[in-house]
């Protein structure tokens, strides 16, 4: 894949970076009034991205799975799940160790952080419920509600069945879905290149204009532990995983993933970022559609390393803040439920904060005081959510690159593609 040069201001990530800088300044100056006036542009941007998710994921998985078929699919499936579990587990362990070591919750006071209302998202309360929740009763209703795990489950089954049909019946439908997928990809690129910079500007103005920068102070130690943990994961663990499992130069992978990382940072949503992630992993990292269509959509919902780390560190923080000491058994329980909670978390902003109740309940941390602390955590959640979303999508892209290499794709991450 040849590296082509584009003037810097024509490159999407520079446009988005400038939009973020200008958005911060404009948000500080214009405050809530400006946020109220231009907030709709950010909402429009998120709506456009959400609009393409269901058809993109459906066509992407069906065409990908149908082209893999049979034995190849089983192998790809086990590699993908193995990778998801490994990296999420490594992330949780980093969160566990750091929170035990730095004890951010000890001596914590609610102070001026205040609390806010929790968003009203669905919470999956047990592993059995999680499985029952994945299988949809009605695929049209599941699509209308953007229930990603159900859509993915249906699409994989549909793709497997399609791949087993005789050639004459399979070909027309496979070609049709393949063309629909190409169309969705083209639509995605168009939306991203036209709307992303102005959309991101508006999102940042809204954030800074309404919350300001002061609200980030009182939970400093808690935020610091999360930032350190997430940085260790993306700066040490993932580069090692890339090198050891894929023989990939982490620096090249970082460079190829700049656009989706900016996008994840500004939208706080792996789901909304998914179209950009697919675009970069296919066109820059150089992974085939056969692998991306399998690893990325499922990864956006299931593989959330940043969220897993956060669940674990967050619950230990609450325990420390309440003066409850957690023994080994409880810490193991936290590790397991943090992994499950990260799988159950939707790929949308603040989802991680909502599913934290699964982990809290597992260790019996309940009651109004807990809710008050979680409410205060919500007040500073947005910047943390932005960062953990970057980690979430970065782990997906690393998985796609490593699995593609293991499938014999030698052209992956050989060069950093600019523009
Ligand atoms: N916002 C995250 C994501 O979409 C999920 C979370 O809240 O941790 O990946």
List keywords for this structure.
419 residues; Proton glutamate symport protein; binds aspartic acid; mainly alpha
Layout of secondary structure:
Layout: H1 12-68, H2 70-102, H3 127-134, H4 139-144, H5 148-163, H6 167-211, H7 220-246, H8 250-256, H9 258-267, H10 270-285, H11 289-302, H12 305-321, H13 328-344, H14 351-362, H15 368-379, H16 381-406
The structure holds aspartic acid.
Aspartic acid (ASP) binds next to helix 14 and helix 16.
Walk me through what this model shows.
This protein is mainly α. Helices cover 77% and strands 0% of the residues. It is globular and about 70 Å long. About 3% of the residues have low confidence. The structure holds aspartic acid. Aspartic acid binds next to α14 and α16.
Number of strands: 0
- The CATH architecture can be given as Orthogonal Bundle
Proportion of strand residues: under 5%
Q: What is the C-alpha radius of gyration, as a whole number of Å?
A: 21 Å
Tell me the major beta sheet: none
Distance between the termini: 13 Å
What is the string of helix and strand elements? HHHHHHHHHHHHHHHH
> CATH topology, what is it called?
Proton glutamate symport protein
CATH level-4 homologous superfamily: Sodium:dicarboxylate symporter
Number of domains: 1
CATH class: Mainly Alpha
Form type: globular
Note poorly predicted spans: 111-116, 118-122
Mean pLDDT: 85
Bound molecules: aspartic acid
